[in-house]
Design brief:
heterodimer, A: alpha/beta, 6-stranded mixed sheet, 33% helix, globular, B: 11-stranded parallel sheet, 9-stranded mixed sheet
């Protein structure tokens, strides 16, 4: 079994000149599931964007180390090839581009053989409850929210990264799709050859129960204010964020700033 | 008649001021026709179809004087399963070709005509093609014009398509070649229930310029038109799309749509889109949409986040952008070849830092 480590160290980042992340420390090892929970505007989507290298975010300090190598200087595609993956909250529609072609290019770019790709894609598609007829449709075009998330999970399963950030995988998902997607991710974390390490950004316990999160981190105003085991998520559900931060820190006055890079961030989250 | 100038509204944005007509001597192109055996239009029909061709400008005049005509008539009820292919090849430098293609689809006929324009890469020439196309009652006529000319050939095309009662006309255009290449298309619905669909793919690089003028002209009631033009420009290339939907007083119950989308793939490239509506009756459905812009950053990031290098991500997005027009072109087997030509153009894009 291959063991890998993703270390986020003192990460400080800004969007549109406004500092959103104020020093994040987080270490994830292969097979672990870490949840990041936080109120709107806490910087959850910014964190996922900065780790993956989405343009428009400025890193002001800190490191993101994958097996000891800092990936922050790499473009997104190099980070993906190195083993990072982002399951997007709002996957882009790419007209006229088929998933099979994207997977073929993604495999080729990693030097992986595309022999038998179509068959694997088909069986993964069926396994995740994604309609195989949708494979012939352009990427995410005219897909429902649930279909998009099944599609995202399918790509994660195909590409087999070392670490995945799930940015609100559970938003826009019905209960069946949530179960199918989270079970697939959970199975990947138990893969005997290369167990997937996960950072799950979420508002809900339900996903964490399905994923069996071992570590909970509570993010407020760009800082992790509490860490613990699954019991922390229960406490959060019972008591709300007020137990972890002052009303001033929870004020949503800076929430729109997190959207400045073009993501919808938490606009539609509950 | 004198040469028009860009001051004339119809030549606005064009490079007409760069043309030196005296540099070109009229001569026939090398033209071949496949799949049209026994389908020559007789002299009477040809005379009828070309009787009142308008003479708007000096190019109409020159065409009238020097044209070489291919006239095809598909008889009533005839369905052709294979396309008719007309190929015009430029015969060298310093020549002006005036090919004229006249197509008549008899009542309830169904067929496709492909007209290819080709040249060697170093030929400096002028091609002034004219298309006159009639779709008779309930006929289903498809036409595809392929501009595969070299980068030093000027093209000034004019197409006139007329749809009679309940006919369906598909006018496809692919423009990859030429120096300055212009096509004006007038698609008229003169019979009740006539439908026209216009589809174009254009992609200019280097110093090329593609210039399209389209008219969706609704004369008769309950007629339909739909237009989808998609283009890309890179390096220092330019493109212009100017389109008009005109719905006449008698064209009640008409539906007309027009969409033009443009990708600008280099900082130094330029695309313009000018949609217009002229509606003179009530009870119509009509819309137009146009966009000009670079590759969407979110689409690019989405693909790159899957580990796909930037140049491959761009190829996927650009081919994806053209996918619907490629699918709508009347000749399926050409699609793979056209995709390859588009991909080749993209791969030859000048590196911006080097320019």
């Amino acid at each position: 079994m291959k063991q890998h480590t993703l270390e986020i160290k003192g990460l400080v980042a800004a969007v549109g000149g406004k500092q959103i992340l104020n020093g994040i420390d987080l270490t994830v090892r292969s097979g672990e599931v870490h949840a990041i929970m936080g109120p709107n505007g806490a910087g959850k989507t910014t964190l996922s964007s900065v780790v993956m290298g989405r343009p428009g975010y400025e890193v002001l300090g800190g490191q993101v180390l994958l097996d000891g190598e800092d990936v922050l200087a790499l473009p997104a595609w190099r980070r993906a090839q190195a083993g990072l993956h982002l399951v997007m909250q709002y996957p882009s529609e790419v007209p006229g581009v088929m998933l099979a072609d994207v997977m073929g290019e993604a495999f080729a770019a990693r030097g992986r053989s595309t022999d038998g790709l179509a068959g694997v894609l088909r069986s993964e598609t069926e396994g995740i409850g994604f309609n195989t007829a949708l494979l012939d449709r352009a990427l995410n075009v005219d897909l429902s929210g649930g279909e998009k998330k099944r599609n995202e999970t399918l790509q994660l399963a195909m590409l087999r990264p070392k670490f995945a950030i799930l940015d609100e995988l559970d938003s826009g998902l019905d209960i069946d799709a949530l179960r199918d997607c989270s079970r697939r991710v959970e199975a990947l974390t138990n893969d005997p050859d290369q167990p997937l390490g996960v950072i799950a950004i979420t508002h809900y316990n339900r996903l964490l129960e399905e994923l069996r999160a071992d570590h909970i981190h509570i993010l407020v105003k760009g800082r992790i204010v509490a860490e613990g085991g699954p019991e922390l998520a229960d406490q959060l559900e019972r008591d709300g964020y007020e137990a972890f931060a002052s009303p001033a820190e929870l004020a949503a006055d800076d929430a729109p700033a997190a959207d400045a890079a073009g993501a919808y961030d938490d606009l539609f989250a509950l | 008649m004198p040469l028009p100038t860009a001051e004339h509204e119809v030549w606005r944005y064009s490079r007409i001021g760069d043309l030196d007509l005296t540099a070109f001597t009229p001569a026939p192109a090398h033209t071949t026709v496949e799949g049209a055996d026994g389908l020559d239009a007789g002299p009477e029909l040809l005379a009828e179809l070309t009787a009142d061709l308008p003479v708007h400008d000096v190019f109409d005049e020159l065409s009238a004087a020097h044209h070489r005509t291919i006239a095809i008539a598909v008889p009533r009820g005839r369905v052709l399963t294979e396309p008719i292919v007309v190929t015009h090849r430029v015969t060298g430098s310093g020549v002006a070709h005036y090919p004229r293609l006249v197509v008549h689809g008899g009542e309830n006929s169904e067929f496709t005509v492909v007209e290819r324009f080709e040249s060697d890469d170093d030929d400096v020439a002028l091609v002034v093609p004219r298309l006159v196309l009639h779709a008779g009652q309930a006929a289903r006529v498809s036409y595809l014009g392929l501009n595969l000319l070299g980068h030093r050939v000027w093209q000034l095309g004019h197409q006139q398509a007329t749809g009679h009662r309940d006919s369906t006309t598909l006018l496809g255009t692919v423009a990859l070649g030429g120096d300055y290449a212009r096509v004006r298309t007038d698609a008229r619905c003169v019979g009740q229930g006539a439908t026209t669909r216009q589809v174009a793919l254009y992609y200019a690089d280097g110093d090329q310029m593609h210039d399209f003028r389209t008219l969706q002209d609704h004369v008769a009631p309950r007629t339909n038109s739909d237009l989808l033009f998609k283009g890309a420009v890179q390096d220092r290339a330019k493109s212009v799309y100017t389109g008009l939907i005109r719905i006449g007083e008698d064209a009640k119950g008409t539906a007309a749509f027009q969409t033009n989308r443009n990708l600008t793939l280099s900082e130094g490239a330029w695309a313009e889109s000018v949609p217009n509506l002229d509606i003179r009756t009530n009870d119509v459905k009509c819309s137009h949409a146009s966009t000009v812009g670079p590759i969407d950053d979110e689409q690019r990031f989405y693909l790159e986040s899957r580990g796909i290098p930037p140049e491959v991500a761009e190829r996927l997005v650009v081919l994806g952008f053209f996918d619907d027009v490629l699918a709508a072109l009347p000749v399926g087997p050409l699609r793979a070849d056209l995709r390859a030509r588009v991909a080749a153009k993209l791969s030859h894009r000048l590196v911006e830092a080097a320019t």
